[in-house]
Structure formats: C-alpha cells, structure tokens
Amino acid sequence: MRLRGTACAAAGLLLAVATGCTGGAEGAAPATSPTPARATGERATGERPLGESPESPRTAPSPTTADPVSLQALMQREHTGSGLRLGEVLDRTSAYTRYAVTYETNGLTISGIMNIPEGEGPFPAVVLAHGYIDPDVYFSGQGMPREQDRLARSGYVVLHTDYRNHARSDKDSDNDVNLRLGYTEDVIGAALALRDSGRPEIDGDRIGLFGRSMGGGVVYNTLVVAPGLFDAAVAYAPVSARPEENIDHFQRPEGDPLVTEIEDKHGTPEENPAFWRGVSPLTHADRVSDPLLIQHGTADDTCPLVWSREAAAVFRKAGKDVELRAVAGEGHTFGPKWAASMDVTEAFLARHLR
C-alpha cells in the first residue's frame, strides 16, 4: 500500500468494523506483503504471557486474488490524507483547547474534533476510533469523551475521527454493505493528515492509535493494512476479528436487513469462504509491525472476552508484540477500573511515543 499526503514518510504500506455499544458489525480482506509504511524493518517483538489460556487460533491461508472489497485491496491502494483544518473553538479548558476539524482522505472530507494541549509543543498525537453509534443520532466527537479529555490533559494532541457518513463527513453509500471498510481508510487518512499538517503543535513522527469496541476492529484492520503508520495501538473491548461473528452476534438476531444485502453481494461464509477469510485481519497477522495493547473486561456481555483472546493468540503466534490485559469484573464500557486501565494505556503510549 502506498501512502501519500505526508511530509515525514514516503511510501508504505487497514478489520473492518463491527459494532460498538449498540450493534452493527463488519470486517476487511486478503493480504500481500508490501513494504511497511515507515519502518525499514519490523520492530523487535516477543510473546508476552497473558496469564490465561486463549483458544487455539483458527488460521487460514490468504487468498491470492484481491476482492475489490477486501483488506488486500486496501493494502494495494494509494492512500491519501491531508488538509487538516481547525474550525470553530468548541471549548477551552486550563489544559487544552477543543476544535471542530476536517481533513481529506481518499477523496472524501471527514469531520471530527481535536484537542490541543496548552503549552509549548510539538506534542505526540493519538487518533481515536470510536465504537458503533447510529449515524442518524451521532454528533461530532461522540463516543470517547473520557479518553479525549484525559489524553489531552496528559499532553497528547487528540484527533477523534467521526468517520464517513457521520456528523459533517462526506457520504459513502456503499460503506455499510462493504463491511464499513471505509472507516479504516478514514483512520489511515487521519494519521497522514496529522503528519502533513505542518502545525507546530503536532509531532507528526509520534502518532498512536486508540479504538474501542467497533473502533478496536478498525485498529486491527489498520495494523495489517498500514503496518508502521502508527507507533503504537490500543484496543478496548474490541469486536471480533472475524466479521461474520460480529454479524451473527449483533445484526442477525435483530433482523437487520443489511445482513441480506451483505450476503447477496458477497455470499455467506459457506458460499464464499475466501471472501470472509480475506476480510479478517487474522488472515494477515504476519503483516503487523506495531506494538498492540488490548484491554478487555472479564464481565463484558457485549463483546465477549474470548474474541480478544483469540486475536491476541493469533498475533502472538505470528511473533507480534501484543499484550492482552483482562480487567477483572469490568463490563463493555469500563467503570470503576477505567482510570486504572488508562494508567496502563498511558504508560504503554509513553514507552512508544515519548
């Protein structure tokens, strides 16, 4: 995959979405092994004991022909991200200023919010990928308010992407039936736009990625489509790395008519197994080069912990730097132990971005 629109990196090398707190689910596609986006070699990695016994990973060979709706097609695409524009000031605190922003990615304008810390930069940046919220009720910056505030107070520029079809972003009518893979493009574009911004507050060479629920699936996709684009990645309570599991868990029980559209276009997993292997980032685990922290509550009844156990096991088997932290008693949204979990997250980000 080739990346454009960045002043700091030349070329390089995104699980598609599923659902967050209320429903919806999806995935991504096949792989090849282009040169990583920024690094000349893969980061030193090593397995970390999880303290648990993950399920045996279900692996499958990568298809050789890229479906246009696939992770492999995204790998082969030349991605762009630029034109980061700060708009209206939404809030001022003693620690940071909050702005409405837009940026360009692959021909679309994407909206979001950005928190810029007070003080002298440049500051490392973190892109936030939110969980599923119905686009009909979503408002700009919704989804991760606690993380936006805390990270900005800790000295990070925070760019929370709305994704396409949300808030003031441009529309993509095929995105849902195509397993919401466009959200992965939006995250890649956010990183490239940060690098290309030229703003003195932003250190475009130090960028992290943080997604929760559906956004955790977007994190997985991004790591296999654009290895090396981010310095580190965090996923909270992520959806399954297998899009068909998300559909069966979230959409099919609710009678979502989108399921029929998806299967009419792409076939069922039984009819077209190659397509469904291709939209799983687990199929492309060998491509990951960025350190990954997964935090998941043991009492999560929205996204089962077993999904994160399997993803971590597959990435570890591929020799990747991944840590799974099971947070005892926490549910999907994290409550009493959220602050402590963020201590762990910030320590992880500091090791790789500071």
TrEMBL record:
<dbReference type="InterPro" id="IPR050261">
    <property type="entry name" value="FrsA_esterase"/>
</dbReference>
<feature type="compositionally biased region" description="Low complexity">
    <location>
        <begin position="27"/>
        <end position="39"/>
    </location>
</feature>
<dbReference type="InterPro" id="IPR029058">
    <property type="entry name" value="AB_hydrolase_fold"/>
</dbReference>
<feature type="region of interest" description="Disordered">
    <location>
        <begin position="25"/>
        <end position="66"/>
    </location>
</feature>
<dbReference type="Pfam" id="PF00326">
    <property type="entry name" value="Peptidase_S9"/>
</dbReference>
<comment type="similarity">
    <text>Belongs to the AB hydrolase superfamily.</text>
</comment>
<feature type="signal peptide">
    <location>
        <begin position="1"/>
        <end position="24"/>
    </location>
</feature>
<dbReference type="GO" id="GO:0016787">
    <property type="term" value="F:hydrolase activity"/>
</dbReference>
<feature type="domain" description="Peptidase S9 prolyl oligopeptidase catalytic">
    <location>
        <begin position="150"/>
        <end position="337"/>
    </location>
</feature>
<feature type="compositionally biased region" description="Basic and acidic residues">
    <location>
        <begin position="40"/>
        <end position="50"/>
    </location>
</feature>
<dbReference type="InterPro" id="IPR001375">
    <property type="entry name" value="Peptidase_S9_cat"/>
</dbReference>
<keyword id="KW-0732">Signal</keyword>
<protein>
    <submittedName>
        <fullName>Alpha/beta hydrolase family protein</fullName>
        <ecNumber>3.4.-.-</ecNumber>
    </submittedName>
</protein>
<keyword id="KW-0378">Hydrolase</keyword>
